Amino acid sequence: MKVLVCMSVVPDTTTKITFNNNNTEFNTAGVQFIMNPYDELALTKALDIADPVGGTVTILHVGLADAEPAIRKALSMGATDAVRINAAATDAQFVAEQVASYAKDKGFDFILTGRESIDYNGGAVCGLLGAMLDIPSINVITQLEVSGNTATIERDIDGGRETVSSSLPFVASAQKDLCEPRIPNMRGIMAARTKPLAVVEPISVTNHSSYQRFELPQPKQGVRMISADAPEELINLLRNEAKVIN
Amino acid sequence: MSVIVFAETSDNQYKKSSLEAVSYGKEVATKLGSKVVAVSIGNAGNPESLGNYGADEVVTLHDAAFAQFSPEAYAAAFASVCKAHSGSVIIISNTYSGKSIAGRVAVLLGAGMASNVVDYPEIGDQFLVKRGVFSGKAFAYVGLNAPVKLLAITPNSVEIKQHAGTAAVSAFAADGIAASKTTIKETNRITGKIPLTEAEIVVSAGRGMKGPENWVMIEDLANAIGAATACSKPVSDMHWRPHSEHVGQTGITIKPNLYIAIGISGAIQHLAGVSSSKVIVVINKDPEAPFFKAADYGIVGDAFDVLPKLIQAAKSATAQ
Ligand SMILES: Cc1cc2nc3c(=O)[nH]c(=O)nc-3n(C[C@H](O)[C@H](O)[C@H](O)COP(=O)(O)OP(=O)(O)OC[C@H]3O[C@@H](n4cnc5c(N)ncnc54)[C@H](O)[C@@H]3O)c2cc1C
User: Fold this and answer.
1) Stretch 160-199 of chain A: residues touching chain B, C-beta under 8 Å
2) Is B113 in contact with A156 (Cβ distance < 8 A)?
3) Which end of chain A is flanked by fewer CB atoms within 10 Å, N or C?
């Protein structure tokens, strides 16, 4: 069994987001970068499926060399080997093109991504890859079992859950509930140091989008406090001042 | 050239987010001087009703292949309508189903894509869309340069606008749609509840509620004001509530008109997912809780004292 897991590297969740150069650039000063939390789930699930049958799990990142600590973390969690496609990830379509071009002739049984990357929140790579590779794409999955040439998958749908079966190969995106992320142990960390990390040059891709500028949400005007003894006052304000309830 | 809108259904009814998408499409079409074609796949109630929200034409696709939702088949069929009608701007809702086809459609059309779109585009020298980034902590303006642009619109981002027009309904035969390689085995919908992502009012609670048994009060308040329920991450991690209710940076991002947070401290990861809410109410016994800084209205008090009175007040107000 051969599995590919795509990972992105994102600002730690406690990061206060600010921008530079007239709000045209994300300010990375002092920001700690981590493996995207949903990708940890994807990798853990891939390992849970591939390890018992002696399969391999390749972790793939599209990005620059500064992502290598996060890639080593993925290797220490148990990935067999890693590939870094040496290009700044400019948007979801660029990333998907790179991954598809790498994966198309490698015979992966399935590919997992995270549900979304918590920086640009595209949630798009899974579907893009599915179409580029002409395989089924199943997003926001919460369970995955592979047996023979079929996968049984549970996924979130709007207002519920659904169980689907899919033939292999397929691509799916990991949602919370799929599993608990694996924590690397000492042996894993040692082993990761010498695991192969291949650097592959990108293919040339036409960029369909360009980030022009960023904006922070409007700060609140200040909070209006209401006495705990008078909750009817809150209801009154919500109805008649804010007009958000009937 | 036209603006093409994917009109998603649930139980054969157009979803509220689909009506928003059609209204959005109309606004864009007006700026571009083109028409709106809404696409309805499967068995939806009354396609002509989409005319009330701005659709000039509704194209329906009925085929055995569409009896079940399949991202591959729906994306392929929708893309062929987009081609047949020379779609230049394609609108899909940023829901789970919408997102499961959006990427596929973008590839089939060679379109430039932006998901998580929260406002109308600026159309000038560039086609500029505003999208949520960093899980609600910021917004980005992205220029889409490809001739065909695909936008996935976050629910509750624009208002539904009524239009006087009527839509011409026609059937479309999508040829050459390959048999889906996926089959749905079972669907479990939570019935009788407002889906969180589409809800205009959300009542959310955190660890301050002490245990799952106390959610009766949260449900009561939600029912009294017609709200959906949500929770903080630890609450879903401890399985007090289903993970589908978890909002925040690693849960879902929502933007209701009203978000009421009870017994939630307001950690940065939680705020990320809810700070786009129009009005935020915080109820917390700790006056120093960081959430108050992000709130419009606040009550410092013990939820176990405040909630019964608040539920009572809400019930008597709505009974008037
Ligand atoms: C990688 C990562 C990702 C994360 N992602 C998310 C996310 O997506 N969403 C999320 O929510 N969190 C997320 N978190 C967790 C976040 O940091 C906080 O720990 C969490 O939001 C706290 O949840 P809480 O407010 O329910 O609990 P607490 O922080 O324990 O706060 C409970 C609050 O209830 C109040 N309280 C207690 N008793 C009462 C009472 N009787 N009446 C009224 N008020 C009372 C307390 O004053 C306190 O403010 C993430 C953390 C990490 C590390």
Assistant:
1) 160-167, 170, 176-177
2) no
3) C
Q: What is the pLDDT of residue A126?
A: 98
Flag if A158 and B95 touch (Cβ within 8 Å).
yes
Residue A77: count of CB within 10 angstroms of its CB? 23
More confident residue, B219 or B180: B219
Given B96, B113, B182, which is nearest A124 (Cβ)? B113
Rounded to the nearest angstrom, the gap between the alpha carbon of residue A178 and the centroid of all alpha carbons in its chain is 13
pTM above 0.90, yes or no: yes
Average pLDDT over residues A73-96: 97
What angle is formed at CA B166 by the lines to CA B160 and CA B167, rounded to 5 degrees?
90
pLDDT score of B320 more than 70: no
Residues in chain A closer than 8 A to B225 (CB atoms): 245
Q: Does this chain's domain B2-171 share its CATH topology with B196-319?
A: yes
- Confidence band of A98 (pLDDT split at 50, 70, 90): very high
Q: What tokens appear for B2 in the block?
A: 């036209």
**Which fold, B196-319?**
Rossmann fold (3.40.50)
The verdict on the CB of residue B136 being under 6 Å from ligand 1 is: no
Indicate the pairing of strand B228-231 with strand A19-20. Answer: unpaired
Q: Name the residue ranges covered by the structural domains of chain B.
A: 2-171, 196-319
Mean pLDDT of B8-26: 93
Fold classification of B2-171 is Rossmann fold (3.40.50)
Residue B195: partners with Cβ closer than 8 Å, 6 or more residues away? A158, A159, B228
Q: What is the pLDDT of residue A44?
A: 98
Distances (CA, A) of B301 to B44, B279, B293, B306: 48, 19, 16, 7
ipTM (interface predicted TM): 0.95
Q: Which of A177, A209, A234 is the closest to B281 by Cβ?
A: A234
Instruction: Give the pairing of strands A137-147 and A170-174.
Output: parallel
What pLDDT score was predicted for residue B152? 98
pLDDT at B319 exceeding the cut of 80: no
Distance of alpha carbon A12 from alpha carbon A194, whole angstroms: 26
Q: Using a CB–CB cutoff of 8 Å, tell me whether B320 touches chain A.
A: no
CATH superfamily of the A2-200 domain: HUPs (3.40.50.620)
Chain A residues within 8 A of B186 when measuring between CB atoms = 162-163
Residue B253 has pLDDT above 70, yes or no: yes
- Chain A: residue nearest B272 by CA? A13
pLDDT surpassing 90 at residue B153? yes
Q: Verify whether the Cβ–Cβ distance A209 to B114 is below 8 Å.
A: yes
Q: pLDDT over 70 for what percent of chain A?
A: 100
Q: Is the CB of B304 under 6 A from ligand 1?
A: yes
